[in-house]
Design a protein that fits this description.
68 residues; mainly alpha; 4 helices
Length: 68
């Protein structure tokens, strides 16, 4: 079962990606929420995220560059 935090993390990440695609940048409030939530994830939740994104070609650094 996927935790509430993981679902919220994925929703925020999806919203941020949509903003970047549409406007070239993401709303600072959403980025802040994602950052805060990410720092609170447990190791089990991080593993759930890993399994969700497994196979994605994009590296984390690429995503971080898009947000900044």
């Amino acid at each position: 079962m996927t935790s509430t935090n993981v679902i919220k993390f994925i929703e925020l990440q999806t919203a941020i990606n949509a903003q970047i695609d549409a406007r070239g940048e993401a709303d600072a409030q959403l980025v802040g929420e994602l950052d805060l939530l990410g720092s609170q994830l447990t190791s089990d939740e991080i593993n759930q995220l890993y399994l969700n994104y497994e196979g994605d070609e994009m590296e984390y650094e690429d995503v971080e560059d898009q947000i900044l």
